[in-house]
Amino acid sequence: MTRTPNLSHGRGYLAIPGPSVMPEAVLQAMHRPAPNIYAGELVDMMPGIMADLKRVARTKHYAAIYIGNGHAAWEAALSNVIAPGEHVLVPATGRFGHGFGDMATGIGAQVQILEFGKSSPMDLDVIAAALAADEDHKIKAVLAVHVDTSSSVLNDIKGVRGVLEATGHPALLMADCIASLGCDRFEMDDWGVDVMVTGCQKGLMVPPGCSFVFFNERAQKVREAMPRVSRYWDWIPRSTATEFWMYFNGTAPTHHLYGLRTALDMIHDEGIENVWARHGVLARAIWAACDAWGAGGDLRMNIADPSCRSTAVTSLRLNGNDGTRLRNWVEQELGLTLGIGLGMAEVGDPARDAFFRLGHMGHVNGQMIMGLLGSIQAGLSALGIAHGRGALDAAADVIAGGEADGLSAPSSDTVDAVMNDPTCCGHGQ
Ligand SMILES: *Cc1c(COP(=O)(O)O)cnc(C)c1O
């Protein structure tokens, strides 16, 4: 099973769903002596960073930065709008909805979970029923995860806004875009999202350590009516900073800001629509390969309906412990690290070893994805895991603009048309 010679010497590829691959330019931007935090280049960079973050989030309203991970952004966002004893509704599609809800429990909220299982998107009718049943409008916010990174489901965030409108419910719509921002199409203002949280280490291509909360005027009014918000989480000084330290309530994450500046430049140079389109084509190449493998074996994508799949991450299952065997083989023999199955089976349950995930978020291109797929193909063969043939051809056809998945050339127009198709569950209907 181990092959000789070992083929892992060369540049490794971390294909897990965050932290994602860091661009050389981001690494180089961070490789510098400590900058002055009182005046000069770094201080002057801040207004542009805030404006460009909002451009990626597709909002013209407010943004606040926190030195912390995605969990910090969850707590920051909730702390500004939810007081102890208040109610939130959490439609959960995998693991991260439960995480967001658990953060709300931690700050004293009453959390109502709507469980949609591990392989399905949110059911808007069920959300509508829960909102309609809340006649006294006790629910203050709906906490909705755009892309659940464990199941790889893409949820219809605009649809949740539609349901809030249809039921005349005043709850805030809070979206977790930690996995999706800079990968899957997200339109904060157009979709009527009041609060959005994200991190820097997935689609934004910066090492873990910063996270962001975006919010609109409605959310700001709710914040202003809060009895108390702890100083550190308070988004008001951070979003209206008049001095550099106020953006961070203390010392700035100096090197992260240089990395972030470069990452934002890369995203805007490519164009956010093109970034989404690139993720779309690469994801469809992966799905075409997975379909082909699955036709002659037990490999299955966790989300059956392509219109409900994220283009940033793909959750897969094999049999027995084949998921773990495959991950170990491609890492040890080829230098490719795949993601563990997360949230699909409990820790300690042997069933966990059937699952694995592919991260394809951020700084990924065609040759990386073909290398990823070719490596998996080699692993399946080397380990004797049954699989269908033709996966690499199918993926290459998608990348070449062939008809493998029923779509024509991957021009951004075509992809935008697909992304705007009202039958696609995550894209706005
Ligand atoms: C990664 C992730 C989180 C958690 O972020 P951390 O930085 O690990 O705290 C939360 N939600 C989603 C959807 C994620 O992908």
Automatic annotation (TrEMBL):
Pfam families for the chain: Aminotran_5
Residue ranges of every copy of the Aminotransferase class V domain listed in the record: 44-335
Coiled coil: none
Modified residues (N6-(pyridoxal phosphate)lysine): K202
Cofactors: pyridoxal 5'-phosphate
Keyword annotations of the record: Pyridoxal phosphate, Pyruvate
One BP term from GO: glycine biosynthetic process, by transamination of glyoxylate
Binding site for substrate: R357
Single GO term (MF): L-serine-pyruvate transaminase activity
Family: Belongs to the class-V pyridoxal-phosphate-dependent aminotransferase family.
Protein name: Alanine-glyoxylate transaminase/serine-glyoxylate transaminase/serine-pyruvate transaminase
Organism name: Sulfitobacter guttiformis
